[in-house]
Amino acid sequence: MLFRGSLFGVSMKAEGIDHVELRVSHYELSVRFYNRILLPLGFKKVHIKGETVTCYVKGRSSLGIRPVKKRKSIRNISYSYKRAGIHHVAISVGARREVDEFYRLLLAEKIKVLYPPRKYSRYGRWYYSVFFLDPDGIDLEVLCWNMPRAD
Ligand SMILES: [Zn+2]
User: Fold this and answer.
1) Where in the sequence is the domain holding 25, given as residue range(s)?
2) What is the pTM (predicted TM-score) of this model?
């Protein structure tokens, strides 16, 4: 049965995904990495008092970076997109040329590219994206849904 957002008489409707937070093996290294890719895209860095976390905020959504817990048994469990957990995190831009520009940034910063920019029409008619990896091997994507414009 579908409840369509009203179970007990109060209407509910999600605004969207608000934030995602990632645990990283080497916090300072990862913060430098995310600075290099997210600040040029217009994200603002926010720190939360009393917590070791760096949040990158853009509009109503944010990506948070937290160090792994220091316990050795946990620290040595490395990330794999094949296990349960985050598969990839995607950031959208408005124009295809911005995906290409971002790709040039990845190359200039010597960031590991998983798949260079290309169309994925199975996701959407104009869907165009580049995949790359963070220092823990977490798969990230920058994509555009829009028809390419001549400008
Ligand atoms: Zn994706």
Assistant:
1) 19-69+86-144
2) 0.88
Query: Residue 8 domain-assigned?
Result: no
Q: How far is the CA of 150 from the centre of ligand 1 (A)?
A: 25
The alpha carbon of 141 and the centre of ligand 1 are apart by a number of angstroms equal to 6
Residue 113 located in a structural domain: yes
**The total number of structural domains that make up the chain:** 1
**Please, which residues have CB less than 5 A from ligand 1, an ion?**
90, 141
pLDDT band of 5, cuts 50, 70, 90:
low
CATH classification at residue 139: 3.10.180.10
Q: 3-state DSSP call for residue 117? A: strand
pLDDT in tens, 10-61: 888 888 999 999 999 999 999 999 999 999 999 999 999 999 999 999 999 9
Task: Give the Cα separation of 43 and 41 in Å (integer).
Answer: 6
Angle at 12 between CA 94 and CA 64, to 5 degrees: 50
